[in-house]
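Inverse folding, one chain.
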């Protein structure tokens, strides 16, 4: 899809965080963005911003974990905005815990929001895309789906599932005009779930901006990219890919790297809600003297 103008996009998780940046980028492409998330106030703000940027925004508050009613949502969208050309499964949640401390309900909530809802919305919209011989599904995954993340294991599992499901349906859809992409951001600053924990980000892992993630989504639509790692720079993106390739051969090596750059310690801090500077890796203590927490 080289030209996105006039396309109808369903964007989940549009009320805050990365979703707002995605909505802005889609508005600049003059699309109609159907914005879905649970709370109306954030959606209305996003829609006003979309309008100001030259697009059209439609706000539909809906809890996507309400699986049995997702077909009502997609029918409603079809009536209001016409058939969906682009689906961006962006809504997501994470809960930091020791694995044994998760309740069954918490595990179900994370997997339903991050994986099952994306699958079900896609299942409902795909027949129309196939019939019209045009469509693109973008799944916002994470590098947490490429390498397990301690104390965020259910999130990691849901994102790994999202990446593998994307990989599988891409092969099923290879002979059709419907494309599918997985976007895998690393740590993102300024807004979003990681930033909101108010725990420092492990700078050696490479930090990207929400704008970079939004640009990557637009590029994936225009260039039909399959799987995209978003990191600080093209060099760190390549290094991340090489690290994951090494991790396939020797997972323990990557465990050591994650421990050394502070991923495990920082997630433990998130789990225990601790913000003691003493727990930080030494390189971060030095950096913190000169910078803010992010
Ligand atoms: N931020 C990062 O560092 C980072 C890194 C890699 C990947 N990602 C991925 O990027 C995506 C966006 O994350 P974010 O950082 O922007 O998170 P965020 O700021 O917490 O925003 C999450 C969005 O999802 C919506 N949402 C959550 N549960 C929902 C539900 N049951 N039904 C409908 N909407 C729901 C929220 O809206 P309501 O609360 O209004 O429902 C909100 O709009 C996620 O898939 C995340 O896994 C983020």
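Residues assigned per position:
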């Amino acid at each position: 899809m080289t030209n996105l103008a006039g396309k109808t996009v369903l964007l989940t998780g549009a009320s805050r965080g990365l979703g707002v940046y995605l909505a802005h980028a889609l508005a600049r492409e003059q699309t109609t963005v159907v914005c879905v998330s649970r709370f109306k106030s954030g959606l209305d703000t996003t829609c006003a911003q979309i309008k100001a940027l030259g697009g059209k925004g439609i706000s539909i508050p809906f809890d996507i974990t309400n699986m049995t009613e997702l077909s009502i949502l997609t029918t409603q969208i079809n009536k209001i905005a016409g058939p969906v050309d682009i689906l961006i499964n962006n809504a997501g949640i994470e809960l930091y815990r020791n694995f044994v401390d998760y309740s069954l309900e918490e595990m179900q909530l994370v997997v339903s929001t991050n994986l099952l809802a994306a699958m079900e919305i896609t299942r409902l919209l795909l027949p129309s895309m196939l019939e019209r011989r045009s469509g693109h599904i973008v799944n916002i995954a994470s590098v947490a789906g490429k390498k397990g993340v301690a104390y965020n294991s259910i999130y990691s599992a849901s994102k790994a599932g999202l990446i593998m499901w994307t990989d599988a349906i891409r092969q099923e859809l290879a002979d059709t005009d419907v494309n599918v992409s997985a976007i895998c951001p690393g740590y993102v600053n300024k807004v979003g779930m990681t930033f909101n924990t108010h725990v420092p980000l492990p700078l050696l892992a490479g930090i990207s901006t929400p704008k970079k993630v939004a640009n990557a989504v637009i590029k994936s639509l225009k260039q039909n990219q399959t799987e995209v790692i978003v990191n600080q720079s093209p060099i760190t993106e390549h290094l991340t890919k090489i690290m994951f390739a090494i991790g396939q051969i020797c997972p323990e090596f990557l465990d050591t790297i994650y421990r050394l750059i502070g991923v495990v310690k920082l997630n433990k801090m998130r789990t225990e809600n601790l913000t003691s500077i003493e727990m930080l890796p030494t390189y971060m203590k030095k950096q913190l003297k000169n910078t803010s927490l992010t």
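The chain has ten helices and nine strands. The chain has one domain: 8-290.
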